[in-house]
Every structure is written in structure tokens, then in C-alpha cells.
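Q: What does the assembled structure look like for these inputs?
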Amino acid sequence: VLTQTSSLSVAPGQTATISCGGDKIENAKVHWYRMKAGQAPVLVVYDDSARPSGSPSRFSGSHFGDTATLTISRVEAEDEAAYYCQLWDSKTDRYAFGSGTQVTVL
Amino acid sequence: QVQLRESGPGIVEPSETLALTCSVSGDSITEYFWSWIRQAPGKGLEWLGYVFYDGSVNYNPSLKARAYMFVDIHKNEVSLSLRSVTAADTALYFCARGRRADISGPFEHWGQGHTVVVSS
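A:
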């Protein structure tokens, strides 16, 4: 189980910090997705801290021990969405998603 | 640019079999892991399983052996079959492509999703 805070609110221009915790994280690469209602998820950070082409530089990731973090700096209205962490669990041979964090931009 | 598109029925009756196809354009399906992922109403993302281009598969045990996935290299398609469906299988279904030959990589590309409702 990958645990995420269910929701958070942030004002435009501020920083949103989203955590993903669980013992499976320690030895895994963590990926992050942004998902707007009714749309496909979009990869925003992969391999803990790398950004795919097209992902704004406002998105950054980190990973220490059993916690991974997605940081959204200078939050914009378009960042309002659900964010999911995800990894490959090599012990159980399956993919796992976090429970998701709904980010609301005030 | 690779594109994925899911297709199939929008309504499936309880106890019947749900069958979806993911058509891939812009790249070959070889050397990639292809996953099916769903989101039930009001819920998070659930990984259902993957099929590798060579036909090897790995299913989420939560599906209790109801799933079957396969590839058609000639058609460049990936398919999902889920039998004995119930209302709990009502969801938005996605196909997604992993990173080339790297099972631990992210889902780099996704289809737009296909809504399936289980109802009589």
C-alpha cells in the first residue's frame, strides 16, 4: 500500500508538497502522474526526480527512505488535479499506485 | 508520436465478459510492456495486469484469475478480456505503455480511456 494524503489546498503562486509513503518505496523508483477528471493520467516525474519532456519545470521529485515527494512550485490554476505516485514492486511482481492526492487551487 | 486508443462495448451485462482492444499507432508494440489500468467511479487507479510483446503476462491477483491479456503484433493491438463481470468492474479503463524493455519504468503513454458500465 502506498499512502498519500487525500487532499490539499494551495493558493496560486505557492508551493504544493505531496507525499507518498510505504515500505515498498525504499528500493523502488517512484513515478508521479497528474490526472484531471475524465482524462488520462499524464506523467510529470519519473525515476524519483526526472522530468519528461513537456513537464513544466515547476514539478520536481525526491525520494528518501520510505517516502517519495512531489513538489509543485509556483502553483497555477491548471495544476488542480489528482496526483498519483506509482512504482514497480519487485517483491510481489506487480505495479502499485498510491491512493491519490486531490490538489485544489484556491 | 505513439498513440493508444481503447475500444469496446460501453455496457456489459453482469456475469458476461468484458473485451477491450487497445490500438497502437506511431510505433511498434514490440519490446514494450503493455498494461491495463482502471479507475472506478470515485476511486483511485488500479493496475490490472500487463502483457509483454512476446505474450508473457502478469495479472493483479485481485482480479481472481478473471483476466486474460494478449497482443496481436500484426495488427499492433493489445487486448483485455475480463470474465464474470460485476458492478464492481464498472470503471474507466486505460491501456498504457511502459518504458522500453524496462519493467520498472513509468507508464509513458496512455490511451484516452474507455468507460465500461456493468449493467443489465
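The CA atoms of residues 24 and 69 of chain A lie 14 Å apart.
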